[in-house]
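Collaborator request log, item 7. Partner lab (contact: R.S.) asked for a structural prediction of Ribosome-interacting GTPase 1 to inform their binding assays.
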Amino acid sequence: MATTVDKIKHIEDEMAKTQKNKATSFHLGQLKAKLAKLKKELLNPTVSGGSGAGVGFDVARTGVASVGFIGFPSVGK
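Returned to partner:
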């Protein structure tokens, strides 16, 4: 697998070889986006893995209670 520096070099070479006109502007834009992503990755390497789930808590049920949600319909109450 190619390193990030190799990928950046390859994209820059392809951009240099590609003519700039209406037909290739979208392709050049995609190459610029990939180049920006790779340069950002090179400057700030991502750390794989996550911290996992956080510590949860449990509330014990006591007594009798009624709860009502008030709000507009279809808003994720």
